[in-house]
Design brief:
Helix content: 25-40%
Largest sheet: 5 strands, mixed
Number of strands: 5
Low-confidence stretches: none
Strand order of the largest sheet: 1-5-4-3-2
Radius of gyration: 13 Å
Strand content: 25-35%
Number of helices: 3
């Protein structure tokens, strides 16, 4: 399959998160990322924008009743920058996680100047 988007990770936040996950979860995350890279239209079951933020998205990973989220955003349309991730335990995405991701997004743009 041809890639439509290039995915890059910002610093080592995503890798650190990934390493802590069981292999089954890692494989599922890679599958979702592959879909994000190759699908013209990404279903919201895989990638959803987070309301109340400027351009922050969450990649959504689900195995059974367990849910994980990995924050990301687009840079120049093609680039999805992966930020921190966490296992979701509640209905709503915790504000602290969103704040952390927003901070990393700002940091990313600052470092590009």
């Amino acid at each position: 399959m041809e890639k439509i988007r290039e995915i890059i990770a910002y610093k080592n936040y995503f890798e650190d998160f990934l390493k802590k996950q069981p292999i089954k979860v890692q494989n599922k995350i890679f599958k979702i990322l592959e879909a994000i890279e190759t699908l013209e239209r990404i279903p919201t079951t895989y990638l959803k924008s987070i309301v109340e933020t400027k351009g922050l998205y969450e990649a959504r990973i689900q195995i059974g009743t367990d849910t994980w989220r990995v924050f990301c955003f687009f840079d120049k349309g093609k680039l999805v920058i992966l930020l921190n991730g966490f296992q979701k335990k509640t209905q709503k995405t915790p504000k602290s996680e969103i704040e952390k991701a927003t901070k990393l997004m700002m940091e990313y743009y600052e470092s590009k100047k």
